[in-house]
């Protein structure tokens, strides 16, 4: 189907990288969009071409209701009353990923999940490149999806958040994978976890091959795709098993990778590698090439990354941890007789940190809580926790008490947006301070 945009009244919501990519997309197709941002000082305001009309500070009702087509950025909630009203009036509301899906000519691998999606997406990209494919990774990581259309490609990889999946209708993936679904972003969804889960699962619609986590079997229906591949449990197509204290990745009953011969650390990364192998096999890539890439793969920045080690004290940057489950996964990866100094806090997005209470009580741990919801989180862990205003204050206090054999872990379980531009800025501050304070 060929889509014409030149005669439509087009409105873009959000002046971020996504919004700028949407402006460029429409200008190249002869359309002149308008754009709105709810911030009074959006970061990329200077990137807007001079001939584009824009409004700042709030959603302009008149502009919204007179539009034919609205492109909504991931940071803008689809459930705002004015957007619900627009839908009821028949105004089309879509995402940049929907625009991309309408135009893409190369096969698409789509990956989502509460945790691990950036790592899996990067692993698959590296495997594809090792085989000589021209491949681009975009969406929630890498390029804005629409920018990838300008590049000659054999394969697209989309890393998709639930926010990006809210307004997609034409996506037809060669392979779609949902890595896991844990409680997250509950402040975004009026229908709570059930609605968040449904949004994640929408990635399977119209997909040729669906990669399914068998540990979360209650959420999947095989009618969603033509072919289903499972992972995660010992009766799955792909699984992880231990033999005499060694960890191996299996396909069916065939041992395919000895983890001890890789640079991978932590169960979450073992499972990420497992899924990447499953995707590689489904694409009919030579397995030895995939194994070669995974054997030499190092953790992505800000994802359980040992950034400093001195006086037998390890400082681990897991700033990408923005939900409770990712914090729990990080703690499970730690094996020490010393004390764990956990840095927790930020914007908890309505999550219930009581879930962690029983787990933390079993550990030799001290919890330093900071940021917008730090005080409320600290109250949950009582004797094991202390509240401080910010990350620097917390690390300064920890540096005075930490001892040989201890581990300092930044795994906040919260969004960074209360005190930082993004999780990268939060992680970079942790790296700088860990070296200065130790």
UniProtKB/TrEMBL annotation:
Please provide the record's keywords in A-Z order: ATP-binding, Cell cycle, Cell division, Cell shape, Cell wall biogenesis/degradation, Cytoplasm, Ligase, Nucleotide-binding, Peptidoglycan synthesis
Mur ligase central domain residues are 111-279
SUPFAM superfamilies the UniProt entry points to: MurCD N-terminal domain (SSF51984), MurD-like peptide ligases, catalytic domain (SSF53623), MurD-like peptide ligases, peptide-binding domain (SSF53244)
Binding-site positions, ATP: 113-119
> Where in the cell is the protein located?
Cytoplasm
**Catalytic reaction(s) noted:** UDP-N-acetyl-alpha-D-muramoyl-L-alanine + D-glutamate + ATP = UDP-N-acetyl-alpha-D-muramoyl-L-alanyl-D-glutamate + ADP + phosphate + H(+)
Q: Could you tell me one molecular function GO term of this UniProt entry?
A: ATP binding
Signal peptide (from-to): none
Per the record, the GO terms for biological process are:
cell division; cell wall organization; peptidoglycan biosynthetic process; regulation of cell shape
Pathway linked to the protein: Cell wall biogenesis; peptidoglycan biosynthesis
Specify where it is mainly localized.
Answer: cytoplasm
Keyword Ligase in the entry? The reply is yes
Q: What cellular component GO annotations does this protein have?
A: cytoplasm
Annotated InterPro entries: Mur-like_cat_sf (IPR036565), Mur_ligase_C (IPR004101), Mur_ligase_C_dom_sf (IPR036615), Mur_ligase_cen (IPR013221), MurD (IPR005762)
Q: What class of enzyme is it?
A: ligase
> Where does the record place the Mur ligase C-terminal domain?
302-412
Q: What is its EC number?
A: 6.3.2.9
- Write down the HAMAP family for this protein, in alphabetical order: MurD
* Protein task: Cell wall formation. Catalyzes the addition of glutamate to the nucleotide precursor UDP-N-acetylmuramoyl-L-alanine (UMA).
Q: Which family does it belong to?
A: Belongs to the MurCDEF family.
Q: What is this protein called?
A: UDP-N-acetylmuramoylalanine--D-glutamate ligase
- What species is given as this protein's source? Buchnera aphidicola (Aphis helianthi)
Instruction: Supply the gene name.
Output: murD
């Amino acid at each position: 189907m060929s889509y014409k945009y030149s005669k439509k009244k087009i409105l873009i919501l959000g002046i971020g990288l996504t919004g700028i990519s949407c402006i460029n997309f429409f200008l190249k197709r002869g359309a002149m969009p308008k754009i709105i941002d709810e911030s009074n000082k959006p970061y990329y305001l200077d990137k807007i071409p001079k001939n584009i009309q824009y409004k700042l500070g709030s959603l302009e009702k008149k502009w919204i209701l007179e539009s034919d087509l609205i492109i909504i950025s991931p940071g803008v909630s689809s459930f705002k009353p004015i957007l619900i009203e627009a839908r009821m009036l028949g105004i089309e509301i879509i995402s940049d990923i929907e625009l991309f899906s309408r135009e893409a000519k190369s096969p698409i691998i789509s990956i989502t999940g509460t945790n691990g999606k950036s790592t899996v997406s990067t692993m698959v990209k590296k495997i594809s490149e090792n085989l000589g494919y021209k491949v681009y990774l975009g969406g929630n990581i890498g390029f804005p999806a629409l920018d990838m259309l300008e590049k000659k490609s054999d394969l697209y990889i989309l890393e998709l958040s639930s926010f990006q999946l809210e307004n997609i209708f034409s996506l037809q993936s060669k392979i779609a994978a949902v890595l896991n679904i844990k409680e997250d972003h509950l402040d975004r969804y009026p229908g709570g976890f059930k609605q968040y889960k449904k949004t994640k699962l929408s990635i399977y619609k119209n997909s040729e091959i669906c990669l399914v986590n068998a540990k979360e079997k209650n959420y999947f229906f095989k009618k969603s795709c033509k072919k289903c591949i499972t992972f995660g449990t010992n009766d799955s197509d792909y699984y992880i098993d231990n033999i005499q204290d060694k960890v191996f990745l299996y396909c069916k009953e065939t041992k395919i990778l000895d983890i001890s011969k890789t640079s991978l650390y932590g169960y979450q990364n073992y499972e990420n590698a497992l899924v990447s192998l499953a995707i590689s096999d489904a694409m009919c890539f030579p397995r030895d090439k995939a194994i070669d890439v995974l054997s030499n793969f190092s953790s992505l920045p800000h994802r359980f990354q040992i950034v400093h080690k001195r006086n037998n004290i390890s400082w681990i940057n897991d700033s990408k941890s923005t939900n409770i489950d990712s914090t729990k996964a990080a703690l499970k990866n730690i094996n020490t007789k010393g004390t764990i100094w956990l840095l927790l806090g930020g914007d908890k997005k309505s999550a219930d940190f009581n879930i962690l209470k029983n787990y933390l009580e079993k550990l030799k741990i001290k919890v330093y809580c900071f940021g917008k919801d730090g005080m409320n989180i600290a109250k949950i862990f009582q004797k094991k926790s202390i509240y401080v205003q910010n990350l620097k204050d917390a690390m300064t206090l920890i540096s005075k008490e930490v001892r040989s054999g201890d581990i300092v872990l930044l795994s906040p379980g919260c969004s960074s947006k209360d005190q930082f531009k993004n999780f990268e800025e939060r992680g970079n501050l942790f790296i700088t301070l860990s070296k200065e304070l130790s």
